[in-house]
Amino acid sequence: MSTVVLVAALVAAGLIAGLFYAYACSVMPGLARADDKTFVEGMRGINVAIVNPVFLATFLGAPLLAGVAVFLKPGPWVIAGFALLVAMVVITGVVNIPLNNALENGGDDYAALRARFETVWVRWNIVRAVVSTAGFACLVAAVVTRRS
């Protein structure tokens, strides 16, 4: 059972790391080319659309499943993966979500909203992409070392 949970955590972590990677290398660079109103309204639409059961199950499921895997069969790679995935959730909750909320509730001065949002959000998205990818890599190492 512990291997099934670990593999489920690994898959969820890979999906979420891939999502943040996709934002870093395509979504945000694409939106960066847009005018201020398009940028703000585009991000507002994305922020509403992403809060859905599939995303939430993956985003919260990766650290939750990794935590269960630590409980079932602790090891250094599983613990590290769990810690990194928890860090990803914390970064999102402390930085990205408040920025998203400020963007949503900031009115229609698109240039000012974008100026307060874009650079900080992009920087921290890259951080969480790296952190979630590292968490994924640790879970890969946990699976590989269990099989050896």
Automatic annotation (TrEMBL):
- Looking at the UniProt entry, the stretches that span the membrane are 50-72, 79-99, 126-145
UniProt key word Transmembrane helix: yes
Its name, as the record gives it, is DUF1772 domain-containing protein
List UniProt keywords, sorted A-Z.
Answer: Membrane, Transmembrane, Transmembrane helix
Q: Which Pfam families match?
A: Anthrone_oxy (PF08592)
